[in-house]
Amino acid sequence: MQFSEKFLYHIWDAQHLVTELKTISGKSVKIMFTGRWNTDAGPDFKDAIIEIDGKVLRGDVEIDLQTYNWNSHNHNENPNFNSVILHVVFQHNDKYPFTINENGDQIEILELCNALDKDIAKLLKKYSEKEFKAGKQKCKFFLQQNEDELPVKLEKMGQERLEKKIRRFSAEHYFAGFDQLLLQGLLEALGYSKNKYQMLQLALKFRYDKLKKFYSAGMSQDELIALLLCSSNLINHLPSTFPAEFKTKWQELYSKQQFSRETIDINWQLFRIRPVNHPAIRLLQISDFLYNSLETSLFHQILKLFSFSSELFNLKDFTTKLYQVLQTRSEFLPERYKLGKTRIDTILVNIILPLVVVYAREKSYNQLEQVAFKVYRKFHGLPDNFITQYMQNLMKPEQKKLTKKKAIYQQGLLKLYFDNCQHHDCEGCETF
User: Fold this and answer.
1) CA atoms in the 13 A half-sphere facing the CB of 189
2) DSSP character for 86?
3) pTM score, two decimals?
4) Which residues are bridge partners to 343 per DSSP?
5) Cβ(218)–Cβ(251) under 8 Å?
6) pLDDT (tens digit, 9 = 90+) per residue, 106-135?
7) Is 102 helix (H, G, I), strand (E, B) or coil?
8) φ, ψ for residue 42, nearest 5 deg
C-alpha cells in the first residue's frame, strides 16, 4: 500500500493512535499537544508538548515515512532541526534506536505502523482527498529592496554561506586528506537524497588510499568497477536495460581478483529511481575519472582547473574544462547516461570550491584562493530546489529573475532561508 508523507500528517494531527505508546528505545510517550503544522520547510509540526518517560518536553516534531529519511533529507546536517524532540516515522528502518541531530543529540523515535487505532486502509480512504495547503505569504525584506541593493546583499550572504562550507571541510580535513574528502563529496553528491548516505558508506569502506594501493598492485579499471559494484551488491540491482554481458564480465572479474573480499551491507533505495540516477550508473559515470587519478591524485586533477590568474578568468573556458574532466565517456554507458552538467555545477559549488579554498589557505596560496572566489562570484545559476523556489515565491518578478542568474545569489537565498525565514524571524532580516 502506497501513501504520501502528508497522509501521516493527518494521522498525527488527528491522533489516530493507540493510548499506550512507546518509542523504539522502549520509553513511554504521551502526546499532550501535537504542535502547529509548519507550512514552511523545517520540522513538520512546531511547538509540540510531549511527555517522554515522565519528562515533559516542548519542541518540534518531524514526520517521515521511514527513519533514514532524516539523513537522506539532510536534517542531520541542519541545525534548524536541533529543536526536534520526537521523530515520528511510519516504519523504523535504521539500525539505531535513536535519530541523531546536527548537535549529536539523541532523539527518540515513535513508529506508527503498529500504533494506529484504526485499520490503515480505512484511514487512507478517509484522508486520501484531504490536503494541507500553505497560505499566501508576503515578505517585507524583498519588497523593500531596490534593484541595486538586492544583488549586493545576496552576494554577501552567498559569501558567508561558502565560508560555512569551508569551515566544515576544514574540520573534516583533520580526519581525512583532500583526495578522500573529494571522493566522499563526489559520491555523496551522486547519491542524491535517496542514496547519499549509502554512497558515503562506499567511499568510507574503499578509501582513496586503499584504492591507490590496489592500483599499484595492478588493478585495472574494470576490476575497480567490479570491486565497487559487487562488494556493495549493486551488481544484482543494475537497471533492467543494462547490457547483461557487462554484468557477467564484472562478476567474473570480481571472483578472480585478489584485492579485496570485503562486502558492505548497504540498504540501497532504488524504488522508482530513474535509471540515470541509479547509484550503479553514477559510479560508472566517474569510474574513468577516478581510475585515471589513482596514478597521481584525485584532488590535483581538480586543482589543475584553477591554474590561471584571476584577472584572466573566462567562465566559458572554465566550465568547458570542468565538464571535460568529469563527463568522461565509456563503452558501456550510452550518451544519455553521462554525468549531467547541472549535477557537475552543483558539485563544483558545494564541494570543489570550498575544498580548494581550504587547500589554498592551508598552503598560503593567495592567488589560488582569489581564483576560487572569482569562479564562485561569476558562476551561473544552479537548478532550483524546493527552498529557492519557496524563496522566489516571496519576491517581485524582476527579483526572481535576478536570483536565477548566479549561483552565489542562490546560495545567499539559502542562507537567508536557514537563518531567518524558516524561523519566521522577519525582524532579523532588518540587520541585512
Assistant:
1) 21
2) E
3) 0.70
4) none
5) no
6) 999 999 888 888 776 676 666 555 554 444
7) coil
8) 115, -170
